[in-house]
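As a warm-up, study this chain.
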Amino acid sequence: MRRAFALVLWMLASATLSACAPHGVQPVEPAACDTCHLTPATSVTPLHTTSEMDCSLCHETAAWSGVTSYTHVGSYTPEGAHAALDCRQCHVAVFVGTSADCAGCHQADFASTTNPDHETLGFSTTCNECHGQTAWVPADDAFHDTFFPISSGNHARLDCTDCHNSGTLEEFTCVDCHEHRQSKMDAEHRGVFGYKYQSSSCFRCHPRGRE
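Now compare it with the structure written out below.
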């Protein structure tokens, strides 16, 4: 009887040691986290996946709170201002399947921006075309240089609406600024064949903004 009871105690102790392997005890066969923590993981918000039940990827053994760190893999790596965010600020309902699209978090920021008005001008909701991850301001003008250089030179640091003032990015003007007033342009282009005081003509002859 005593031997049978001792055997039961030994089996219970072995199971306990195996279950506690992640907490510093050295059992014969280390157990997965879901031996103890499957129910908590699948009942919290955001919903945790059960496909990779390795709690140590984010948590320490001392407590659940105070997530240590997690290395994102795949389509998005949080940097700058995003690096210090709480997981739940992006993963509202679930971890797996959360969109990496900028508009997934920043649609309200996009819609409320008025200088320039992103919606009216038809800006893309892919924020990283113009913005870095550190701050909204200043925006990065380099993407525009493939169409017309504004990150340096005479047209650097112009507001979008200085050239796109008709309510759409597809249309632009070269002749609505003091620097390009008609009296000055007519004088500078006297004798130039085909000269017209029109934005399309300006761009055709000066596609990189040079005189």
